[in-house]
Amino acid sequence: MEIALAITDPRRLAALSSYAVLDRAALRSFLDDPMLDELLARDACASHLYFGSEYCEHLFPVERDLAIAKANAERLGVRLVLPTPIANDALVDRIADTLAALPATTEVIVNDWGVAQRLSREFPDHVLSAGRQLAKMIKDPRVPAPAWNAVYPNNVASGTYARMLSHFAIGKVELDIPPFAGPDLFSIEVLALTVWAPYAYIAKGRICKTGSLGMVEEEKFAPGRTCHRECLGILEREPESISSGLRTYRRGSSMFYRHDARMFALLRESIAQNRISRLVLTEV
What we know:
Number of strands: 12
Strand order of the largest sheet: 5-4-3-2-1-12-7-6
Shape: globular
Structural class: alpha/beta
Number of helices: 6
């Protein structure tokens, strides 16, 4: 199983300079999370470095930060992965321009069908993966019982979904573990599965609560405001869900939850059964 470290905040790239290799000890030190011991073998070592955001167009890496991430990946001997969000036309162009300047070994996570179409056409040598926003499932931590998952079945197991991905030469999907997930979540033969831990994405919106804090009243909570990446310095911790007990967090316009013991157990079991091709370790 491959292991990746995911970074969104460019300021965290500086911390990578103190590591000669991203082995088990380095990963635990960087993420400061003892729960990772449950998921990582003693000889575990990262093979990929994710840098960027799947959820906010304003967090797409600037050229300077991407160069630092690329240099760190080369020094650590890992492959660079570029996550990309839902994109307007201008960002689609920017993503294409950025990828043209990166080595062909760079992988790309796509969460926008327009991005998938253009990159598959113009960059056939780059490996594309379907991001978590394209994997539709119920991940609301307020879900009170497993039966609610049947209301909106996971689309990843659909043959139609796999055929659509194949049209863009995509054979990998990135997943979170939803509340009340069972082993069948990872029983997918036609696609390689990447799973994120120990934090999962819930939902995103257009309004950045954090970015509105310093605005005058009439301009608060409105789309189209200038972004100063305030979310990278402020993490909002929400009350635990009464239904599931999951701890949730908000960063900017997106919400996340931390995996509980049941999710960790399912992930360990799925790793032991070789159902997962890559594990992505991330901060919230």
